[in-house]
Amino acid sequence: MAVPAPTPLAPVTPVSAVTASVYATTGVRSRVASAIASQVGDPPPTHVLLIGTDGTNLSKILADPANTGFFNLMDQSVTGATTLVGHTTISGPSWSTIMTGAWDTKTGVINNIFNPEPYKSWPTAFNLLEYNNPAIDTSVVADWKYINDMAAAGGYPADTSIYVSKVNDSWADTDAAVTADTIDLINNTDGAASSFIFSYQDQVDEAGHSYGGGSLEYAEAVTNVSDNIQAIMDAVTARELATGEDWTVLVTTDHGHQQSVGFGHGFQSPNETSSFVIADIAGDSANDGKQNLNYSTADITPTIVGLFGIPLRSDFDGVPIQSNAAVLNSIVTPVDLHQALSDAISMYGYPNIGRDITLGIRTVAGSVPYYLDIITNTITGQLQAIVDQQIFLISTLAQGAQFVVQLTGDTLVAVTQVVARAVGQLTGAGTIPPSDPPLPAPLAGSVRLPMLPAAALV
Questions:
Q1: Using alpha carbons only, what angle is made at residue 320 by residues 158 and 191, rounded to the nearest 5 degrees?
Q2: Quick one: CA dihedral 33, 34, 38, 41, positive or negative?
Q3: pTM exceeds 0.85
Q4: How far apart are alpha carbons 107 and 89 in whole angstroms?
Q5: Residue scoring higher pLDDT (443 or 240)
Q6: CATH code matching the domain that covers 21-347, chosen among 3.10.20.600, 3.40.630.10, 3.40.720.10, 1.10.10.10
Q7: Hey, where are the domains in the chain?
């Protein structure tokens, strides 16, 4: 993004009050260290924003002229139509790939039941930034708890983690709250500190599960996220104009969606394996509006790590798109970007039939414990509502039933998860070990500042 001469930064606003719960440390250590570094002539701080929109088909973005937030960003970025062919199209495995730079063949993540163990061997972008340079101020704001859990795993968690629970029983309102908190984080970024922000939005995937990827509701959710992206980019632009900073912005999705109501995703149809990367790399205005033929969602973390000058792992599956020669040589100038991206999407098909069947078996096995967990939580939640009413005898009986359901459900989930992991390994998940050693454990007795409410982040 081109940036004119700096002007004074406008006053910032506090973190949104609609955030339902916050898991945070203040990052004061990061800001102090960066302020000291800036006094001794180090390079200017790096700022990277990653926006994740779950279950979003690029074809649906391109099909609707109302999606100007996406289109405006594409006009100042390089965009690639990417694919997950040959990999599980479930959110947990896919976001793990995005945040570790390693495919499910390495991480072993098979479903949406969170397990912190894989991130000890395959550190996330948060881990790599915090371990190698604690002065970088790292943040995440999301409305799916799995993302916050992943940002807290691996021994070197994000400095600030904001989880937004469902607002007004509306995923659109919830994503709007994520957007507001993201803008607050942008506005409150310390200009002397390098920073990384991951902003995650869920409504498109939720609309796909409820109505199908070909529905009007799905298209409306895509447009809502497009508007949210425009609001976030307006905040980035305002900050750049006010400070002279130059931010890198990356936008991606974890998988696509089936067009009809049903399983949603998890298999290998082109609609499910469709993904994309939009990359507005700081200082690269020469490639604005172009297309890349070689992007991968596995490139996200290597790109982030490389932008901060941190050494790359040798066992990344992805590469830093700002410096890898093969990727840079894959930038083309299409006559019509939207048509060229649509043509690229249509090039991707299915994996070979053996791989297709193998991944289908893994998805079915991994879905059993996940849906058992959902059913257990739904029933115990309904029973809790009866308990809360304090009805004579009835509430006591409900409390006893709740204990039985929870115990039974947890046991079934644990047993089926063991089976699912075994099936996952037999079908190739987690079979490739890391070649790099794990990050050293944090020093004994090291102290991170306590979790604080949103108001304390101002």
A1: 45
A2: positive
A3: yes
A4: 14
A5: 240
A6: 3.40.720.10
A7: 21-347, 353-426
